[in-house]
Write a sequence for this structure.
């Protein structure tokens, strides 16, 4: 029997790898989507165990394979929106990485920070192709961890952003958002909207909804022409928002259509059809379809989360951890560790 060692990489160590490395983060997303477009990735169906239909408390099992890199694995991630009122994070997870020459596991990696970073990175990569030129204002509906990560990566990508509106159910959360980010973005004017979601959206060149609940907060009347809307979670906008869009782009429509997001609900109710979806993001990145073509286009971007992107992150984190000496090696299986007589 072969000895099997795995590398355990903690959240702090993942943070060390990501720190001041935004281009590395964004490149992982684009690389994964190009591999997907070239049929170099496998995306089995996600298994989602929903424990409460109202809150959408759930645990997802998300497998994937990246063929050229000879790795396979999965993300095991819990999404518990009901945690928010308790003051507890609503997303936590781990990444499991295996090589596919012998099939042995090689790493277990914290997936909580990776999920936060990956989600914002996908939205930011989409914005690279879909946002208006030189956006100056950004509006957030929701002010939690995901909103903050989106701001960080979007500001890195669009240094022209000079004004940020933030609306949340609690003014303390808005102030916390501003307090955490204003020192790092001194050239940005932050505006707390006191739960006025209309104010946060109506002046924004880029709108991001990142809320923990299932409430259609974004209204079509508050979306101006030329805006990019980044839809992060579940049901965050009224149906009229999608119907107003000149283009609807998804990270992957086939992975989205049977979920509980706004456009997924519209599809299942017969309001949207397959042909109403303009493109998947990989088609735009690879040049098969154009991104933004006109200044006055309103573009709706929907992200459901794709496990092959998570797996690409896991593989790059693992490689960096090995290079930098991060993580702890654990002997998972020792040679001849099994003595069958002990089972008699």
């Amino acid at each position: 029997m072969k000895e099997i060692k795995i590398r355990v990489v903690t959240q702090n160590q993942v943070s060390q790898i990501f720190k001041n490395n935004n281009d590395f983060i964004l490149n992982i997303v684009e690389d994964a989507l190009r591999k997907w477009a070239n049929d170099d990735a496998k995306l089995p169906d996600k298994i989602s165990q929903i424990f409460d239909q109202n809150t959408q408390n759930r645990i997802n099992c998300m497998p994937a394979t990246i063929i050229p890199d000879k790795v396979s694995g999965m993300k095991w991630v819990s999404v518990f929106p009901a945690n928010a009122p308790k003051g507890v994070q609503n997303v936590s997870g781990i990444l499991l990485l295996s090589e596919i020459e012998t099939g042995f596991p090689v790493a277990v990696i914290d997936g909580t920070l990776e999920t936060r970073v990956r989600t914002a990175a996908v939205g930011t990569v989409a914005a690279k192709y879909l946002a208006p030129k030189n956006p100056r204002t950004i509006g957030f509906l929701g002010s939690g961890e995901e909103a903050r990560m989106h701001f960080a990566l979007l500001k890195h990508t669009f240094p022209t952003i000079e004004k940020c509106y933030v609306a949340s159910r609690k003014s303390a959360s808005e102030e916390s958002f501003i307090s955490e980010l204003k020192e790092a973005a001194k050239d940005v004017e932050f505006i707390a909207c006191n739960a006025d979601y209309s104010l946060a959206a109506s002046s924004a060149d880029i709108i991001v909804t990142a809320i923990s609940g299932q409430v259609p907060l974004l209204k079509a009347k508050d979306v101006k022409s030329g805006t990019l809307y980044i839809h992060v979670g579940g049901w965050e906008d009224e149906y009229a928002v999608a119907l107003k869009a000149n283009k609807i782009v998804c990270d992957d429509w086939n992975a989205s259509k049977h979920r509980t997001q706004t456009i997924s609900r519209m599809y299942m109710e017969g309001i949207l059809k397959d042909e109403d979806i303009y493109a998947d993001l990989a088609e735009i990145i690879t040049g098969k379809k154009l991104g933004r073509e006109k200044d006055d286009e309103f573009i709706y971007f929907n992200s459901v989360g794709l496990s092959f992107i998570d797996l690409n992150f896991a593989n790059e984190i693992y490689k960096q951890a090995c290079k930098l000496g991060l993580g702890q090696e654990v002997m998972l299986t020792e040679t001849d560790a099994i003595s069958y007589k002990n089972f008699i």
Remarks:
- The chain has a mean pLDDT of 94.
- Residues 4-114+307-343 form a domain with the ornithine cyclodeaminase, domain 1 fold (CATH 3.30.1780.10).
- The longest helix spans residues 112-130.
